[in-house]
Design goal:
Elements lengths: L10 E2 L2 E2 L6 E7 L3 H12 L4 E5 L13 E2 L1 H7 L4 E5 L1 E5 L6 E4 L5 E4 L1 H14 L3 E4 L1 E9 L2 E8 L2 E12 L6 H5 L7 E10 L7 E3 L10 E6 L2 E8 L4 H12 L5 E11 L6 E2 L2 E3 L15 H21 L4 H31 L2 H11 L2 H10 L9 H7 L4 H4 L8
Parallel strand pairs: 3-4, 3-13, 4-10, 7-15, 13-20
Antiparallel strand pairs: 1-2, 5-9, 6-9, 7-8, 11-12, 12-13, 14-17, 14-18, 15-16, 16-17, 19-20
Helix pairs in contact: 1-3, 1-6, 6-7
Length: about 400
């Protein structure tokens, strides 16, 4: 039985819903794991925190394959692990696959629905008010606070807060409404839950499979997740072709869609406002993963909010320490990832076949297995290029961006 905070006998989906006319310390727009992390950290420090989540259930719809590094497992102490993976197979368009076996586990597959609800329960346990079915539409500065406008059951309502945290996803309404611009690139992603058991991680490359990105196959508690992202607007078409090719088209249980935001936004702060997670494009450009980078940023965001409220200074100038901090921690790796993606997008299928062939060489393969890091892929550049200098022909003018 879930532990919840009951107020006015109004509880939905296991989480407390409160409606209080007051000035909150922090309101978080978005009840995904990154927004919940910020909310939980702020509430644990004694702040009055509310989360406004547009969906009526935490953890749905599922928009992520849930493949994360051991760092994420350690940071969240999660109990939602489906598989600890030490092996991964990379399939080029036409050549032989590259099978990587690190020996110990280098990635974990999470049950994302369970993970999200775990994060929500922890937030509730620390005093966060989670309000479901509440879509934030806009915010305005109102003296010493922000007025947050949201829609619930077709009715517009307002709440006031000292700081608003925009964790409302890749197509952030708050970013768009406030004129803060959006991601440089939006990739369409789609994945199918297939009723076919699997205990392995597979990556599929090729212009015909997933133009501009890649496809994946990872275990799920109900079978297997098969998904991909592409930059040609035909992600669902490509997924259907992949499912047909694997003979799984008639085993599909459900299909989920999502968006991957790539790029470095000009700003992730304003007066009494901070953006975090996908809303801040804090996403790894090569994999599209945002849990590790988002959690790093969430902790920096919450510590900045706690300090700013304690100092009674929630101005843009004071909140800039958050932007400086996350860019120092992960900004360089994101920039390198963008350079590496530029290289990857220019490769033909024939070049991808040759690339994987070179990576299969014993010395290079050993480096990938021993030093592979899904959070910091750029760290592989120097040792791999040193072991296989013939790879330099693929990088062209982009090589300087990697070092």
């Amino acid at each position: 039985m879930q532990k919840v905070l009951v107020h006015n006998d109004k509880v939905k989906n296991g989480f407390d819903l409160r409606r209080l006319d007051k000035l909150y310390d922090v309101i978080v727009a978005g009840g995904g794991p990154i927004g919940l992390r910020v909310a939980q950290k702020c509430a644990a420090a004694g702040l009055d925190v509310a989360v406004l989540e547009e969906h009526r259930s935490i953890g749905t719809p599922m928009q992520c394959a849930g493949l994360v590094s051991p760092r994420v497992v350690k940071m969240t102490d999660t109990n939602s692990i489906v598989l600890k993976a030490s092996m991964a197979t990379i399939h080029p368009p036409n050549g032989d696959p590259l099978v990587l076996n690190a020996g110990d586990y280098r990635a974990a597959v999470l049950d994302r629905k369970k993970f999200d609800r775990e994060m929500a329960q922890r937030a509730v346990d620390d005093g966060v008010e989670i309000n479901l079915g509440c879509k934030v539409e806009s915010s305005t500065l109102d003296g010493d606070h922000r007025s947050v406008r949201y829609e619930e059951s077709g009715v517009s309502k307002n709440l006031d807060t000292k700081i608003l945290i925009a964790a409302d996803g890749p197509t952030s309404t708050l970013r768009r409404d406030g004129g803060y611009g959006g991601p440089k690139i939006l990739l369409a992603g789609v994945q199918a839950l297939v009723g076919k058991d699997s205990e392995e991680v597979h990556i599929f490359l090729g212009k015909d499979i997933a133009p501009g990105f890649f496809a994946w196959q990872v275990p799920h508690p109900q079978g297997t997740l098969v998904g991909l992202a592409s930059d040609d607007g035909r992600a669902l078409e490509h997924l259907n072709k992949l499912l047909t090719r694997k003979g799984w088209k008639n085993k599909v249980i459900s299909i989920y869609g999502g968006t991957i935001p790539l790029g470095r936004p000009d700003s992730t702060i304003d007066d009494k406002l901070m953006f975090v997670g996908d809303a801040a494009c804090q996403v790894k450009p090569l994999s599209g993963g945002g849990l590790y980078t988002g959690l790093i940023s969430a902790d920096l965001c919450s510590s900045t909010a706690i300090k700013a409220i304690d100092e009674e200074d929630t101005s843009r100038k004071n909140l800039k320490s958050y932007q400086d901090a996350w860019q120092k921690m992960i900004g360089k790796e994101i920039s390198k990832g963008l350079w590496m993606r530029k290289i990857y997008r220019k490769l033909t299928d024939e070049q991808l076949d040759e690339l994987v062939r070179i990576l299969r060489k014993e010395g290079v393969k050993r480096i990938l297995e021993e030093k592979g890091d899904i959070d910091y892929p750029s760290t592989l550049a120097k040792p791999v290029f040193k072991a296989a200098p013939e790879l330099l022909k693929f990088t062209g003018p982009f090589i300087k961006g990697l070092f």
